[in-house]
């Protein structure tokens, strides 16, 4: 299974092609829309999210609520495009019109300058339109398909926020995944800790007032993945490495951790590794889950716990020094419209990119053109693992 996305932030639409989804899998646009809507929410989102109402148009690959086995084409229209038809149109336009909204002033922390150097664009709109986090809507659409596949195989996944601007949510090891889904959905910052939620919202409000932005840490939690998915035999078959790649590729993400993550550097081996236990009913398990569900690039059968860190959004109201690429004059970069914090939305994006890697790994290990046969193969494998 793989996917590609196309489309610019203020262009007509975002398009996602997902290939390799088995036939006969139940899938509705409602499921994808629910994911898209969740991504749009969150305290700290800017004005653009009031303009867009992300809805998917499934333009291929699904008929009467089931996948066909052919590529899926998922379209999300940009409502803001009506204000950008000249600026973003695909046909040649007059020179005088072309000069409108030309961007020659790179924003520190964005792709603007490096992208202009790489592709030879003198108008950095050609960079920022594609490097914008608007593209994550297309990735969520692909991830929603993966989530449907996982759900139908009894694998559940949720993303939430652990930390914003240094305000940490408490750990709640006793919560079930259903609790985590429900509680995070009710929090305007997607946190499991109501007290921290309020403090995070206050921090976002303050950042907004100050014309600044703040980042944070998201966590994705997965239950139901059988042991032995992924592989240790080659670097590019290690599933934790693939997840790390996918998470790191989300706009503004700067790092990834599994389980206790960087804390492992500070502990002795005896305090890190998870002891192996066995019972007739469950088969092999781990007493703890410090390693976050992975050993040797393969799932252990324990919940997958992965964290990603998002830097503060670099599009700032508060000016930062930069240099105009035409005049070479120093100026103070600032903008008219931005999100002051997109960490709650990023938790949803992270949930979806992780879901895609999991579904892809399952299909690689149990290739099947027909979903009911895949389900059977997974059920049988689970039983083999239990009886091992
Ligand atoms: C973004 C800037 C803002 C965000 C956008 C990402 O958009 P605009 O420039 O239109 O105000 O709202 O995010 C989305 C549109 C989205 O769907 O997440 C940027 O510079 O990356």
Automatic annotation (TrEMBL):
Task: Please tell me where FMN binds in this chain.
Answer: 130-132, 251-252, 296, 311-315, 337
Any one GO BP annotation for this protein: aromatic amino acid family biosynthetic process
- Pfam family of this protein, just one? Chorismate_synt
Q: Name one GO molecular function term.
A: chorismate synthase activity
Residues bound to NADP(+): 39, 45
Q: What does this protein do?
A: This reaction introduces a second double bond into the aromatic ring system.
Q: Report the family membership.
A: Belongs to the chorismate synthase family.
Q: How is this protein named in the record? A: Chorismate synthase
UniProt gene name: aroF
